[in-house]
Amino acid sequence: MDALLYKPIYLTVVGLLSALAGLNLMSTSGNTLSAGDKRNGNLIVPLILCTIFVFWIGNRPSSWIFGDSNLYAHIYENFAETAEANIHWGAEWFWALLITVCHRSGLDVHVFFTIVAAGYTYSALWAVKKINPSSPYISMLFVAGSLMFFAFSTNGLRNGLACHMVLLAMAFLMDDKRIIAIIIALLAFGTHRSVILPIAATVAAITCIRKPQIAIYIWIGSIFCSLLFGNIFTNFVMSLGFDERMSQYASGELGHDDKFSATGFRWDFLLYSAAPVFLIWYVTIKKNLRDGWFNVISITYLLANAFWVLIIRTEYTNRFAYLSWFLYPIVVSYPLLNMKVWENQNLVAGQVLIAYVSFSIIMITFFWG
């Protein structure tokens, strides 16, 4: 299949499925979503759709359309000549181990991409099944219809895989399965070290910052700090030397030409990030509703996004933003599927799903794609 067709086909399918699901929710009045059986959500349909996506995206052709895929394919196919051939336990060891095992097993690069796509997709599905157990299909549509889901399955695939592993670790942590959560978090860190940010934010959410309103104040404060002292924070991140690739993005050394390379204070990205903040405020402060899981998800999003706001002027700012944006669909879907917030919740959920996915399609097609 022509590489140029991949994104339009994906957007069309996700758009149609979301429209049908949204219209079905809007036609069933009441609050069956928020009052549904928390154990018996149908997993068959989302599992089939995710499996189709995994094999389809894993066997994508080599093309500039898919961004970093060409780089990862080159590393894999020239494995013996690259630094990836040596596993450094202080670096991204799990990613190097994955390449090592797949390459030495004689697997084709497309099989490798399929395995990565499986980790990326199934970890998200597993997580939403635990977080939104009564409606995994609707929840997965929110995830698949997110602004960055397709991009991080083909372009920033290592970052995407690590972030979804963190999401799964969060789901186990909130389910009081801490040992499993820690193991998955360590694997995520071994895949892409930048995920230390959402991991640290999650730890803060369950230990010291327990109220979403405090995290909202931190997020608002980060905007003023970024406007006044933005370059200082960017230079500080570069000086840490924690992640070489992160420092290269911050300094502009990776001089690719795409729609995310523009620097300066990205008001468009900030407005996009503000929508979940408004929802968190509405649910936790305006409606005064309490939910332990929603608190952890919300605070993690707010803290991770606040860090990104501080360094918003960097090139490829979407790479930093994704460290919070991977939680975007979870923040939006959780109160719709688990908390009684609105009078006719099914109607609201259907409207939000259609609007959410439609907005993503418009932005990907005309602006940020």
Model regions low in confidence, pLDDT < 50 over at least 5 residues: 248-261
The percentage helix is: 55-70%
Total helix count? 17
| Major sheet | none
Mean pLDDT: 87
Q: Span from first to last CA? A: 20 Å
Mind telling me the C-alpha Rg? 20 Å
The counted number of beta strands is 0
General form: globular
Topology as H/E string? HHHHHHHHHHHHHHHHH
Beta-strand level of the residues, as a percent range? Answer: under 5%
Which class do the helix and strand fractions yield? mainly alpha
List the helices and strands and how they pair.
Layout: H1 6-27, H2 44-58, H3 69-77, H4 93-104, H5 109-131, H6 136-144, H7 151-154, H8 157-174, H9 178-189, H10 196-207, H11 212-240, H12 244-251, H13 267-286, H14 292-310, H15 317-325, H16 328-338, H17 345-366
Describe the protein in words.
With 369 residues, the chain is mainly alpha-helical. The chain has helices at 6-27, 44-58, 69-77, 93-104, 109-131, 136-144, 151-154, 157-174, 178-189, 196-207, 212-240, 244-251, 267-286, 292-310, 317-325, 328-338, 345-366.
Brief write-up:
It is built from 17 helices and no strands. It has helices at about 5-25, 45-60, 70-75, 95-105, 110-130, 135-145, 150-155, 155-175, 180-190, 195-205, 210-240, 245-250, 265-285, 290-310, 315-325, 330-340, 345-365.
Task: Supply database-style keywords.
369 residues; mainly alpha; 17 helices; globular
